[in-house]
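Blinded run. Sample ID left blank on purpose so nobody reads anything into the name before looking at the predicted structure. Input follows.
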Amino acid sequence: MSVREIRDRPGRRIDIACFTGDDPAIAERHCEPRTVLVRHAWRIERHNHLDSAG
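Blinded prediction complete.
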């Protein structure tokens, strides 16, 4: 998804990123990654996984 898409309708884009899958949504500008949107549950799962691995 592009930065412009997020800027134009941020609430909608955040909802789509959070509720349509487990994969992070990467926002790009000029084909360069700018930020990543992830579900909070995904973040907690990854954090717990890293803690237990380590």
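Unblinding after everyone has recorded impressions. The chain has one domain: 3-53.
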